[in-house]
What does this fold into?
Amino acid sequence: MKLILAEKPSVSKNIADALKIKTKQDGYFEGNGYIITWAFGHLLQLNDAKDYDEKMSTWKMENFPFIPENFKYKVKSDPRNRDKPDMGAQKQLRIIHKLMRRKDVTAIISACDYDREGQIIGDSIIYNLRTDKEVYRLLLNEWTPDEVLNGLSQIKSNREMRPLQDAGVSRQWADWLIGINLTSVTTLKYQKGKGKALNIGRVLLPTLKIIYDRDKEIREFVPEDYFKLQGTFAVAEGQYTGIYTVGKEDKFKHKEELELLQKEMAGKKGIVSDKTVQKKKEYPPLLFNLSNLQGYITSKYKGWTADKVLKVAQGLYEKKYITYPRTASMALEESLIGKTAKVVNAISANLPYKEDIKFYASKRVFDNKKVESHSAIIPTYLIPKKLTKDEEQVYEAIRTRLLMQFMPVAEYEETKIATKVLDLSLDGVFYTKGKVQLVEGWKKAENIKSKDVLLPFVSKGEEVDIKKLDTTSHTTQPPKEHTEKTLLRLMETCGKNFDTSGDTEEDVVTILSGFSIGTPATRAETIKKLKDIGYIEAKGKNLACTDLGKTLVETFPIKELFNLDFTGRLEKSLYDIEKGKYSKGAFLQLIGEFTRNSVEKIKMEQDVTIQEVTYTKKRIEDLGKCPVCGHKVIEGQKGYGCSNWKQGCKFVIWKNDKFLAALKKKPTKTMVKSLLKKGEAEVKGLTSKKGNKFDAVLKYVKNADNDYYSWQMDFPNKKQ
It folds into this structure.
């Protein structure tokens, strides 16, 4: 019997389905020679500072820096009470430990995600619970039945994954050291009042600095006026316009200069001094990695954030519809050619442009040199039967991007005309560009309409009439505020603006060699955290520093943490540990020294206030009596629950309740008050699966066989 540990229940279900295991026990599946259990992401977390030393239970400047001799783990904390362990995690750990000790279990297989985070989720559980049984690793890029069965036939010894484990542990311990020490000391030094903290992090601060720098550019931007001279020329076939250009410059600082030229040109004729016609090819954009997918979706649709894109993509991955989403690669491994052909055939079956799709082993798509750990994101061969609107938008983008690669290359004809003014000795000429789409190609998949600029037919040497001359006024524009798309791009390339149009996208070497801010898995979370802690704010799709974020950048003395190169080197070190080129010990020694020096530097700085926290006691509204224990029900951050929860009462109505969410509703105070007082609540404007609106009376009733509550729906006014 082999025990498989998956990262989430949904993944364990996928493995059980592939192995045709139907029997489910409390916390695991069993059958056909396998036991499949699961974590809920991290079941264990690093000890808090106070767990090592009681004196660390309160923040005092003299107690820092605090660097444990050995890092230890504990059951993750209850989100509602950090001093208590999460009961669900504790229960699941007991189940996993009991299964690991079973005499008929001969080997343990970690099936957590194939990345740093997944490696330490599995390893921290397996090795902290202790076992002398052989541990193996299941490394998959998708959870389809074929891949699960194929992967189980090729499991690796977990010993081979030591470099990945070292990289994961190094990242986790380094972030603990920097976060715990510098957040504590910075808060003590620069904050008045209690209740909040000035969050300091290895990835947070350089990301904040990118936004700060752009905001500063915009603030300090001085607009300048410039002028252009546009000519309209008439020929037998029609007319065309051109912009007066000297060398490569078509913008002029002095309006008078162009107005004088305009007078000199009046009444003259022109001649076509040069004409070139070139056929050009447009290749489709490369396959999505996570950052590009997040950028594409957040810029195309309203209401999306990078964090939301990752969550939706992760859901599609766990439902077996797409491959692993947290990837930095924009190409596929060459070994996937046969599998991709099968996928392309399956997902293109009912499309109107199916005949334009011809699969071949394209080097732009399949190239081992451009793949780092995980291939680009593509669909699997499983066709979704039903998707939410959000899932559909993400899935369609991924599907279309793959199919584009095997459609004809788009082609267009570009015409350039140079027009000289006769009888004048001028330094410049009027340049005109025209473009005509010849082959729609891959653009058909996204219904991209070309903006053709049609020109009348002219020949080189042909005389033209100068029909009109206009001097136009313009003003230089400041840089645009960052969006999540532009921010993700800069995080991915460590602040270096690479041109990623067309084939040059393939040359972004820094991504594949480890220089970046954060990883594909953490960048969206970083942006979300910056918003949540109040360092940045969203204005529509744009991002800007708050006053707090601006003051922090200008005051905080550890400038290395704002430096993109410094952060990039740290991430590169983690990358090198993963590849076995650098040691965990050397990295952690470096981080330890940096932490000690940073703490001492902050202590020596002048006392100033970055943030002042004023505490106002919040009035807690009594919504009614708890049906379980009779105590008050109050509103919390995530739900409406019993005030007696510290003593173990579990009554709660979650704000993200799935039953209500399916009906496009969230619980309100009014609804909760009615449920507690009358046992029912009349709710209007519910939405059916077909999108129809209706009203109903809802009840929240305790189940007969357990302590949980379920919803009941009545229609008292419905005609019989």
About this structure: Residues 54 and 498 are 50 Å apart (CA to CA). Residues 633-714 form one domain.
